[in-house]
Amino acid sequence: MTNLWLDVVAVVDNSKGMTLDMLSGVAAVLASTFNVDTSIGIDLDNPRTTRLGLVTYNENATINADLNTYQSMYDVVSGIFDSLSALSSSRLSYLSNGLQTAADLLKNQSFGTLRDHYKKVVIVYAASYNGTGKLDPLPVAQTLKDDGVIIITVASVEHVRQELLNELAPIASPGFNFSIVTEGGNSTGIVQGALMQANCYCPNASVQYRESFVDKSSTPYGSCLHPINDSTSWKASQLSCRNHKAYLATEFTQHKHNFIVESVTSTTGFHPPLSYHIGLNQVLGKWVWDQPQGLPQIPLQSYSDWNPMFPIQSSSMNGVENFQNGQMTGWQNIDQLKVSTNYICESYACDTDNYCDANGNM
């Protein structure tokens, strides 16, 4: 949380359906979500900063703080508790108005600005779900998600109601639908985890390694894959990856291997039988995985996926490619200088450990 860099809008239900005790609870959870060391606002000397806006909604929506209002954690805490100290006089609660106001705020102050490359998050604290027709919140939520905004929903009621969780689930980005549990639990930690996950992404249209290739909303990992449709030798491929601050891809598990196969199968220029260089190579008689320049290569562990009859014992066949043999795709060692084929680069994701600028450079 110390290195978090996001643009976040909190959207809080303050209608009479949200009790005053629960509204105070939301204020406490929201204020404590951000670490005391989280850099709030804009710091020209530190790009790892988070801006927080606050919108309350009932029958209508109100901007209590835009994305430039809070410039410190003191501003966040005092501003949140001041804005969430009383309920509105309205019993009506239209989440669509709150979401639309958050969308307008991001459009005017985040998209198309110097922070355009910062991930954008909306956190909804809702006590009820209402609205049909023009007041249906789902189309607004879908537009936000289509624009790359992550939506976190938090059912904010005294006792968890499965009905409300079910209603909020389509509003949330997959896996980001939670509740405040007054009887215990760690609502703050859950939202913090969601924020850090939202901060993990791959720039420049690369493929983010994730739990499921088919489900783009599945849990992402901190690794970006770059299938390159350019037939070169293993050594030239390694140098090309390094020129782009990357390295030839690693396959530490069967899951990673299968994910890469699915990635290249979906990439223009990769045709069956599949063939592409990966980062496994032999150094001083030992098989090791390529790593970023300057870091030691990682020894081959227990997992391996050699094609039948491989590896071939040869002093010159020290590179490795994935090669499709029938329905299976596995490793086979090759001459690093003589065999040309496509290749897969890998790089670290942009996240709280790795800040990326507008061009995707760390």
From TrEMBL:
Residues 7-169 form the VWFA domain. GO terms for biological process: innate immune response. Residues 220-346 form the C-type lectin domain. It holds the Pfam family VWA. This is VWFA domain-containing protein.
